[in-house]
Amino acid sequence: MKIALCSSEVVPFAKTGGLADVASALSVALDAQNAEVALITPFYKKTKDNGGWKRNEKGIPYSLIGKKIKVYFAENDAYFNRNGLYGDRKGDYPDNLERFSFYCLRTAGILKEAAFKPDIIHCHDWQSALLAVYLKARLGDDDFFGRTKSLLTIHNIGYQGIFEAGEFPKLGLNRKLSEMPEFEFYGKVNLLKAGIIYSDGISTVSPGYRNEILTKEFGFGLEGVLSQRRDSLSGILNGLDYSIWNPATDSYISKNYDSGTLKSKSENKAFLRKLCGFKNSPEFPLIGIVSRLAGQKGFDILAESLKEIFKMGIEMVILGTGEERYRKILKRIAARYPKVMHLALNFDEGLAHQIYAGADIFLMPSSYEPCGLGQMISLKYATIPLVFKTGGLADTVNKNNGFLFEEYSASELIGAVARAVETFRNKEKWQVLMKNAAACDFSWESAAKEYISLYEKISRKA
């Protein structure tokens, strides 16, 4: 089976978030399942400047990931020779509709020029959603794509690619389509909505999130369209790259360990406490957070909760960057509790790994989380996750490997932390939790197998 993955960012070439990791890791996992895979992504300035690429006989720039997977770059300096992927400090680039409609059409051109005739074109998020539209509305008579089907994966439905209605002609589609409901969204053009309607299959990044986006609370205005396509909507949990996130081989952490040597985890806690300047008893439970600082990530209710949480005799380290309002709030709280709270408002890869290895509890109180990566990492490191019961967090954390709270509020968060602290002080129960956590397996292999089954199902559609 031939699969063309289309993503606006791919590790190691360009990244702003988890989408880039998924595109790369899923491709490698599919290749390991004997699928023939090609990736197509924009040729950004950063990619071009970093080198490590060359041109094929048709002049198409490309590089390799894994053992043999080709990553082709859609080239247009007018659109992509910029410092940012989607925007700059002023906000989103005003020509993003043109930029990514070009990317989608150029993707089709690259596939033809490279003679890569895909069974499935796997589109990721709104930036490539137009490709599902073009396959039917512009390329329907092209024999090269005669048997090609499309799958659209929604990583976060909060980002939809919404533009002014007057920009529709720039898409190069029949003007009559602008009068149809496929694109229309409160008087504007919605590219994700169009992709949902035109794609042959739709998926999200966890079973829980699949169900949530069918509701008004989490559907961001597209719950009605998704409900109409409910039978074509799947939820497949993202995997974790254990070649990177593995305490047995992690070069960033103080002491390597695995599920059979969990006692060595205490050395990582001691090292992390020293980095943070903590001088209380090592018996204090240490809570770690590695996150973007945003309301969606739970920092609104966390800020309300910290006064009560610190009364429980805990220490806390927070690593992250993000919204200025939460930077200011956390700085004030850290100044109030300097002996038990360490705040690092920067990106520090080494410290992130050490937190996963050295903390006792990993706190992730996101109000919604399509899949989530932090809780899967913490489980591998036997650091017990404490999460709000939503999306991928609910799919991966349960009473046997962590703690959940079901009402999104400061009081419920405080209660969950109290339960975790009480359990921590029962060493026998905590050891069981740690062993259960370390035994969890969220490898990309299982996710790749699910995707291949889904590809096959979509390919059989008339």
- CATH topology value of the largest domain: Rossmann fold
| Structural class designation | alpha/beta
CATH-level-2 architecture of the largest domain? 3-Layer(aba) Sandwich
Mean pLDDT: 95
Give the uncertain stretches in residue-range form.
none
Identify the strand order in the major beta sheet: 3-4-5-2-1-8-9-13-14
Per DSSP E runs of 2 or more residues, the count of β-strands stands at 20
The main β sheet shows up as: 9 strands, mixed
Strand portion, in percent? Answer: 15-25%
CATH class categorisation of the largest domain:
Alpha Beta
Helical proportion, percent range: 25-40%
Query: What count of structural domains?
Result: 2
What name goes with the CATH superfamily of the largest domain? Glycogen Phosphorylase B
Distance between the termini: 17 Å
Count of helical regions: 17
| Principal-axis shape | globular
Radius of gyration: 23 Å
Q: Any overview of this molecule?
A:
Helices cover 39% and strands 18% of the residues. It is α/β, with parallel strands linked by helices and 462 residues long. The protein has two domains: 2-239 and 445-459, Glycogen Phosphorylase B (Rossmann fold); 262-441, Glycogen Phosphorylase B (Rossmann fold). Strands 3-4-5-2-1-8-9-13-14 form a nine-stranded mixed β-sheet. It has a six-stranded parallel β-sheet with strand order 17-16-15-18-19-20, sandwiched between helices. It has a three-stranded antiparallel β-sheet with strand order 10-12-11. The longest helix has 18 residues, at 96-113.
